């Protein structure tokens, strides 16, 4: 059958191509049951052939759902937050939802409140907050949000007050990183943490310190800022004649580990012969560091999928699965036995 398409294909055109009524097409488009599988397949094929796009306003009137999910984040180019956002967006599209992003530059309470209210004004079905810092959780507690809300990033223990949370298990990841160094026989361990006001930094630090304590190790701790520049400056300090080079280092993200590695190379420190280094995040470049970096991998694809599944469960008045996503250790060439 040859059908001449208008500039914006209509539901009637889809129905004509599929050989069904426009009411049947409407049931498929709006997710209603009662359509035979073979009929549904014909309609979906016709939608693809005609290039039909559902009208979002009409969808809202029919289903009482807008197809929008609000996501609020503090502006950051760091690997974790940007990967989390990308994973949520991918998962949303697979569920036929559109993300409405509010990227807060400074993270002030006024900005946060305006971002939430902007989402609600556009009838989002749920709000997801990528909460990198404690202050965002404090702002959230002070607001009344009448749609399902999930805090993405922190663990439940880090977010009091019964808020829904979804995360990669940061403490477990840090535990695996430090335990790997201990299993290699290292006792002189330095921890390079993230900024103290970042929730993930706190959780990674807690997991690392607890693992050291269980092994009777008192680590040296430096608070970093997530940047390779900080790692580089710390590496220069540790290789200074007045510095003290440890046997092993756990850097709370891969960028600080990269800076450390660069400084050590410049000062003739061999890795992993002189010092072992473990990072966190498993950025795409980690396997191309020299040496390739042993690090903790975060499965952001699974995180994004789980966040969307939890939001949809809340929308259907079901109990969501908020179990943290497990981290994994990728052992490469930057660690060796003491």
From TrEMBL:
InterPro entries attached to this UniProt entry: HTH_LacI (IPR000843), LacI/GalR-like_sensor (IPR046335), Lambda_DNA-bd_dom_sf (IPR010982), Peripla_BP_I (IPR028082)
UniProt keyword Phosphoprotein, yes or no: no
Record carries keyword Transcription: yes
Ranges of residues in domain HTH lacI-type: 9-63
One MF term in the entry's GO annotations: DNA-binding transcription factor activity
SMART domains xref list: HTH_LACI (SM00354)
Pfam families per the UniProt record, alphabetical: LacI, Peripla_BP_3
Entry keywords, A to Z: DNA-binding, Transcription, Transcription regulation
Protein name according to UniProt: LacI family transcriptional regulator
Phylogenetic placement of the source organism: Bacteria, Bacillati, Actinomycetota, Actinomycetes, Actinomycetales
